[in-house]
Each structure stands twice: as structure tokens, then as C-alpha cells.
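Figure caption, in words: inputs first, then the predicted bound structure.
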Amino acid sequence: MKICPQCDARYDSPEWVCPSCGATPPLADGYPALAIEFANAGDGFNPEYFAQLAGLEKGNFWFQSRNRLILMLLRRHAPALTSFMEIGCGTGFVLSNIASEYPAAALMGAEIFSTGLAHAARRVPSAKFIQMDARNIPFEAQFDALGAFDVIEHIEEDEAVLAQINKALKPGGIMLLTVPQHPALWSKQDEKACHVRRYTAAELESKVTAAGFEILDSGSFVSLLLPLMWLSRSMANRDSNTEHDAMAELRIGKLMNMTLKAVMSVEMMLTRIGVRFPAGGSRFLVARKVPISKVE
Ligand SMILES: [Zn+2]
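Bound structure (zinc ion present):
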């Protein structure tokens, strides 16, 4: 069900026209804008990165490996999903992979910056897109599964976002998250990327549980590359004179990218057979919306 941003009425319709009050959201870059006051603001993520990102992510070891992980977890925990929403869909790189795996599913991409939506819509013509604020998701009991991949670390009110995701899921629905891990790895790269925090496993898991979920899986990834990552970050922190660029880590040579991809392949293989690493640059988490009767 959609939730009317004007009068809070719940309604089922493919269109964004509230049957109670007649309100229809304005458009931003041609997409329904549920939080238009943020559509073009740079609060949390620089929209200019979308254009750069779209070019970089396709061959990049990190985005490819994360995509493999996401599909692996969806196949395992939501094999029959018929509806999926991605919060912070960016350029649609993840959503396009999900579209090829689940061609019959109703897909929705949401992004706070409407500039990202045009990229995404070109990549995933079958999906619907909206501009919205993750702290105020205009859906209730709508989706089988919902993903936010490297999103909630950008948002001060992450607990509110998790509660909104819970509300937007059908009972028993599946949430998939990836976040940067280990506060000790905090560096200028995090500042440039407008992160608010890096998570510990305990912090993420307790916030997810408090939002009405039961955790099905939670593990580290980018584990085998952790020593390399730590080295690169501590060098970047020490060297304060150079200009740091959130994209710099992604602009790597072909040979290096192939090597890193091979290492990540081994890690993904181990993760698939159930190995969970004690540490890693990122954390993934899969959780299920607990039926209301089970929540205290
Ligand atoms: Zn209304």
C-alpha cells in the first residue's frame, strides 16, 4: 500500500493519486518526488558522483563482488520474491542485476537525489522509480524484500530508517543491508563519502533487532583484502597534504582490479559455503520482519 504524504491515507493504486485527498506528489526530473525539498540537495551524497560512478562500477571488483553477494543472499533467503525495493538505488547497477535474476518481480528504485534516477531508469527500464527520503518511506506492507546497500551509514537517524523499512515490508519480508564496518577503519575516505559512521557488528545487529527484525545472517566481507585496505587507509590518513577523493579508491589499474576480483571470488566462494569471517571492510546482514504478535 502507498501512504499519502499529505493526509497519511493508505491506498492501493499503481498511480500516485490519493483517493482520500486527491494529492499527487510533484515530479523531480520526471519522477514522483515524495521529499522534493531534498531532491537536489547535497546532503549526504554528492550527486555529481552518479555520473562518475556509473562509469566506474561496471568493471570494478568491489561493485561486482557486492552484486554477487547480494544475489547469493536473495536466492537463499527470498528465492520467490515478487516485489523488491532498493533504497539508494544510485545508478541502478544493483537493481539491473536483480531484474535479470527475477524478471517477473515488480522492482522499485528509490533515491533521495533525483539526478541518479535517470541513469537507473535507462539501466532498468522495467523498474519504477521514486525520489524519497529513507526516513519517511511512503509504503506499508508492500514489498517481499527491500535492500539498502551502503546507504544507512550516510544517515544520522539510521534507527528511524530501519523502522521505516520494517513498515514497508510485508509480514515475513526480507531486509538486506550492507554497511562499512569497524570504526577503527574510519578515514578521510569516509569523510569524503559523507559517512556518519562505520558499524560494529553489535551496533548494527542491535539496531536491526530493535526495529522489529529477526536476524537470519550477518557476516563480514572484504575480509581477505582487509590488511590491504587498512594499509591504504592509514597511509591516506597520515598524508594530509594530498587531495582526497571518494572515487580515488575505485580508479585502480586493470591488473590490480583483476587481482582484487580474484581474491574476492575466493572470499565469495567461502561465504557461499557458510564461512563467516571475523572481520572485513564491510558487513552484510539479512533479516526477516517479525510478525507483530512476536514483537514485545
Ligand atoms: Zn491523501
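The chain has one domain: 2-294.
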